[in-house]
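Weekly modeling sync, notes
Attendees: AB, CL, MP (scribe)

Item 1: holo prediction request
CL wants a bound-state model with erythose-4-phosphate before deciding which constructs to order. AB pointed out that an apo prediction alone won't tell us much about the pocket. Agreed to run with the ligand included and paste results into these notes for async review.

Input as submitted:
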Amino acid sequence: MEFFLDTAEVEEVREIAAWGILDGVTTNPSLIKKSGRDFKQVVSEIAELCDGPISAEVTSLDTDGMVREGLELKETLPPNVIIKVPCTPEGLAATKILSDQGIGVNVTLIFNASQAIMAAKAGAMYVSPFIGRLDDTGADGMELIAEIMRIWDNYPTIETKVLAASIRHPMHMLQAMQMGAHTATMPTKIFRQLMKHPLTDSGISQFLSDWAEVEAAGNA
Ligand code: E4P
């Protein structure tokens, strides 16, 4: 099981990487825009903080453009950067060309199982079904993860990992893991929520106040 952070904020990567459980980072053009910083600079800094796969997304829509951008990103950014391409016919062709050269590709914006199958067939390292955005349309994003995992079960030799994306709350991650998704990418807020329980906080307070009394009594 892998946990990726979905952000282009370097300080957030530093915070979660310090927990010791961060396996990778996903960025996208909207997250880069939100950061207000230079794309390559941000991705380079993130790749220094986390040695797992760091997704950098291309913005061309044609195969040649995606391949050109992907190769350029691979040449100029740290080696743990992988290339994110949209799930279109042109993106599939780019995935095939890049993955044939040993370049990791994350096929993004997947909204049905057939797209996931096609991306895997093209050699994607990751396929990214978007749970939250499907939920927003009234569909059931989790059901898509379940469907993809059922298909993957039929083909044990598939190496493509299923990366549950567009995660909006802790239950999305927990359910994706129950279904066997290999990876979940989550915003920082979700990482924090996953580690939060009021009984942990009150338990610590109780232990510390009791321990203070132990020390005051000279029994420490
Ligand atoms: C994944 O790679 C995407 O960047 C991300 O999960 C999109 O999430 P959103 O739907 O919350 O924007």
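Recorded for review: The chain has a mean pLDDT of 98.
Action items: CL to compare against the apo run; MP to circulate these notes.
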